[in-house]
Automatic annotation (TrEMBL):
Keywords: Heme, Iron, Membrane, Metal-binding, Monooxygenase, Oxidoreductase, Transmembrane, Transmembrane helix. Heme binds at C383. It is a single-pass membrane protein. Its main location: membrane. GO terms for molecular function: heme binding; iron ion binding; monooxygenase activity; oxidoreductase activity, acting on paired donors, with incorporation or reduction of molecular oxygen. The gene is LOC111015899. PANTHER family: CYTOCHROME P450 714A1-RELATED, CYTOCHROME P450 FAMILY MEMBER. This is Cytochrome P450 714A1-like. It is found in: Membrane. Belongs to the cytochrome P450 family. It comes from Momordica charantia (Bitter gourd). Its cofactor is heme. The chain crosses the membrane at residues 12-29. GO terms for cellular component: membrane. Pfam families: p450.
């Protein structure tokens, strides 16, 4: 019996390996290879992928090389604000090799990098304001989302792909990520169910918050699925996006605005002078905010140089025509916003310089192709909180500049970091002096 068992076990492992290889070939490699074939037939090429990991090993190698070659990051070393070669060096390298349109692979996912302007134009008080009375629960969701953001940003998580090495060699981290995701989804769904009960009691109410509008859209849209699990996923995913985008992005944008103003005191003086005329009492109201042109230009230029969201991302659920290219079903389309915002052909030779005056006549006159300005996305997927965020930023910048003169601390290290959004790795250290 022992001999039979030994022989059986000896055959089990090779059989399991054969099954795994068969699975990977027919469900992963073969599928992505077919997608690449369709794209190559249309003239879209890209770096050759490995069998299991796609281009992830090459991306990691390029990232490490960029980190070694990175220039000093003291405040005095900030000359140009182009961090794309540091944070996304593989995209910079591949763009030089293949142009602004190419394809690459991460594991079993095929991606299309599309930074062509003509293709971009074809792309498709938060907790209380959006979700009614569930403010306390909203704060808890914010906290858990921040924890999830930190975890996901570590290691080899790349554009929605958790590598095999993270799954098998860092199982505790992977379990923590999954646990946080479930807790966040559970909290959001509790909020949704509470809101459903409130709606049932007050059917005649004409006031609708954003959560209720999302719920109604999920129930009425036949493509989502009414009362099915698809509608639940639709609601939860949209709420997660709103919580994260609304909370983090505005705070980070305000931080970058103050960093840039600390480097350019003349713009502080200009804003302060404008405030004195528009708001003699020092308290900007709705009418005064619209008159703060210099503040608006500074905010727009900040969002150009340091857009909190680094990407516009879409997935083709069906074969989709984008410009002259038919994108096969299942391909993830990525547009790297900071590179568009620094394209000298679009913005001129001073694209890496802080020059708010380029927006003096609005976005339409600031660059060659206005659709290339994407701090809030574009088209039907334009950020719902765009106007709210711009007002918030104007008020924050105005109030700080009206009360303080400030400069960067000698201890400040300029180190933009990609943690789902582009933020200062170690914060921004600023020296303030009362006006």
């Amino acid at each position: 019996m022992e001999v039979v068992a030994g022989v059986s076990l000896r055959w089990i492992f090779p059989a399991a390996v054969a099954v795994l290889v068969h699975y990977l070939y027919y469900t992963v490699w073969r599928k992505t290879a077919e997608v690449r074939r369709k794209l190559r037939a249309q003239g879209v090429w890209g770096p050759p992928p490995s069998v299991l990991y796609g281009n992830l090993p090459e991306m990691q190698k390029i990232q490490l090389q960029a980190a070694v070659a990175a220039p000093p990051n003291q405040a005095s070393a900030i000359v140009a604000h182009d961090y794309t070669s540091t944070l996304f060096p593989y995209f910079v390298k591949w763009t030089k090799e293949y142009g602004p349109l190419y394809t690459y692979t991460t594991g079993g996912r095929q991606h299309l990098y599309a930074n062509k302007v003509e293709m971009v134009k074809d792309a498709d008080v938060i907790s209380r304001a959006c979700f009614g009375s569930s403010y306390a629960k909203g704060k808890e969701i914010f906290s858990k989302l921040r924890d999830l953001q930190k975890l996901v940003s570590e290691g080899n998580f790349s554009f929605g792909h958790i590598s095999f090495s993270d799954r098998f060699f860092q199982p505790s981290k992977h379990r923590r990520i999954k646990k946080l995701e479930k807790e966040i989804e559970s909290l959001i769904w509790e909020t949704v169910q509470q809101r459903q009960q409130e709606c049932a009691k007050t059917k005649s109410s004409s006031e609708k918050d954003l959560l209720q509008l999302i719920m109604e859209a999920a129930m009425s849209d036949p493509t989502v699925g009414g009362c099915s699990d698809s509608s639940k996923k639709f609601i939860v995913d949209n709420c997660k996006s709103i919580y994260f985008a609304g909370h983090e992005s505005t705070a980070v944008a305000a931080t970058w605005s103050l960093m840039l103003l600390a480097l350019h005191p003349k713009w502080q003086d200009r804003i302060r002078s404008e405030l004195a005329q528009a708001c003699p009492d020092g308290h900007p109201d709705t009418a005064a905010i619209s008159q703060l042109k210099s503040v608006g230009m500074v905010v727009q230029e900040t969002l150009r140089l340091y857009p909190p969201a680094a990407f516009v991302a879409r997935e083709a659920f069906v074969d989709t025509r984008l410009g002259d290219v038919v994108v096969p079903k299942g391909v993830c389309i990525w547009t790297l916003i900071p590179m568009l915002h620094r394209d000298a052909e679009i913005w001129g030779g001073d694209a890496n310089e802080f020059k708010p005056e380029r927006f003096v006549n609005g976005i339409a006159k600031a660059c060659k192709y206005p659709q290339a300005y994407l701090p809030f996305g574009a088209g039907p997927r334009l950020c719902l909180g765009k106007n709210f965020a711009l007002v918030q930023l104007k008020i924050i910048v105005s109030m700080v500049v009206s009360k303080f003169r400030f400069s960067l601390s000698p201890d400040y290290r300029h180190c933009p970091s990609y943690r789902m959004i582009v933020e200062p790795a170690d914060g921004v250290k600023i020296v303030f002096q009362r006006v």
